Amino acid sequence: MSMWQYLTTLLLITVQTWEAFPAQRCQEFTDLDLSHAIIGTSLKVRLLLYTRENSTCGMLMSHTNLTAHPQFNLSRPTTFVIHGYRPTGSPPVWLKRITELLLARKDTNVIVVDWNHGAANLNYIKAVENTRKAADNITAFIKKMQDEGASLSSIHMVGLSLGAHMSGFVGASFNGTIGRITGLDPAGPLFTGHPPEERLDPTDAKFVDALHTDIDSLGFRETLGHIDFYANGGTDQPGCPKTIFSGGAYLKCDHQRSVFLFLDSLNGTCASRAYPCSSYKDFLDGKCLSCERFGAAGCPVFGYDVTKWKDVLLKLKQTKVYFTTNTESPFCMTNYRVDVMIWNKEVRWGYVTVKLHGDGTEAVATIDHKSSKFKTYTETKLFAHFDKDIQSVKKVSLKFSTGNVFQPKRKLRILRVRLTNLERKERPLCRYDVLLEENKEVTFRPIACEESNF
To answer: What is the SS3 assignment for 404?
Structure first.
């Protein structure tokens, strides 16, 4: 068969398929505007199917006749993506990207739950009320899938904000037999303080993971899953506006960052390792660097691949972990423990900036969440988060600052500094006898630490 014959045959098959199944024509997410939100919208749930066969062409699903969609293969796993509150009615900017990345990761059915009619409403209370009704709609659809032979354990629900709780309602309807629910900054307003049956909780699926990025405003503060990740302490995300004069970005940036962090984890360019801790302060102080409870895999990595730790996390019942991020993608940082011993006669207080130099690249970590105490012949343990991962460190730069412009310049006489990469099992890097004058950067070549070194 010639190429032209092949293309002609393919075109005929495509036309016949579209004529047989009119609903198979490409559908877009409902695009509304502020006027719809002001008037208020009545709930309408649309399910848009994407597969590797139609990765850029959403197919509008029938809620009752699954056979009308030849692309919908129930032997594949299915991932539902559920958006949250839409006060302006516009489509989420991240929908196309999350669909692409999910399909790139796995041969799955991706179903985007479009409930913009219902979420687009200036009356947030009404949108919250609609989450129950929309969840009932999705539950009925999944029940139909189950009747047709789909496995509930192969279903993954990814919900942002109100969509996270909606996923929980669906999961509860199946007594927690759905495979996984991922809650991206689950909504806080009208859910905080409510019992588990009125929000997302660990019993809603076989495995529930949650990310918190805006706990002081739009997000939920307390734990909701088998593992709860708190990015940058769960609030004030790096790179987000700090004042209301920035407009709408000030209100939504922290909340929406949860999606972009998840997208980064799907992309797989780098990993954000998270550490179990009782508070963000203790985490920043480097008091929570032990990963022994997780076995050989070490501390869990945030995002799509956290299921690698599923078995141990289910045994632990509930785990609260913290990690830090960059201001933009790639968001992941590289963690080091920095141990400093000085031989100044007097105690020194201050902040340290560390730079790692590779082949033409540089990574920076500024340890300034508080003033650190340096005492003679006593090891000060610092937790450093570098903005890049330098595979082969050639040089190290250090800078010391007291932050006090009214006092004489201080010196920090370092007897030994030791840098330990917490991401890879490598021999720590050391340097001995370094004099730091305040606010002056000193660069040196580190050497591999020896066992005998004090």
So the answer is: coil
Cα separation, 240 vs 13, whole angstroms = 49
Burial class (CB in 10 A: 0-12, 13-18, 19+), 195: exposed
Nearest to residue 424, comparing CAs of 270, 263, 222?
Answer: 270
Query: Which two structure tokens, joined as six digits, stand for 123?
Result: 């009356």
- Per the annotation, the verdict on 161 as an active-site residue is yes
Average pLDDT over residues 236-248: 86
pLDDT score of 47: 98
Which one of the listed residues 36, 69, 156, 161 is annotated catalytic?
161
The catalytic residue among 204, 255, 258, 264 is 255
Look over the chain and give the mean of its residue pLDDT values, rounded to a whole number. Answer: 92
Q: Which residue has the tokens 């009619």?
A: 117
Q: Looking at the domain that runs over 3-323, which CATH code has it been given?
A: 3.40.50.1820
Sheet containing strand 395-401, strands side by side? 362-374, 348-357, 395-401, 442-444
Cis peptide before 330 (omega within 30 of 0): yes
* Residue 24, pLDDT score: 64
- pLDDT tens for residues 15-43? 333 333 444 689 999 999 999 999 999 99
302, 257 Cβ separation under 8 angstroms: no
185 in catalytic set: yes
Instruction: Please report, as a single letter, which amino acid is at residue 336.
Output: Y
Residue 63 known to be catalytic: no
Domain positions in the chain are 3-323, 334-448
Rounded mean pLDDT of 329-345? 96
Catalytic-labelled residue, pool 185, 209, 214, 264: 185
Nearest to 339 by CA among 371, 372, 309: 372
- With 0-12 / 13-18 / 19 or more C-beta atoms within 10 angstroms meaning exposed / middle / buried, residue 45 is buried
The CATH fold of domain 334-448: Lipoxygenase-1 (2.60.60)
User: Does 374 score more than 70 pLDDT?
Assistant: yes
Residue spans of alpha helices (H) in 21-70: 34-39
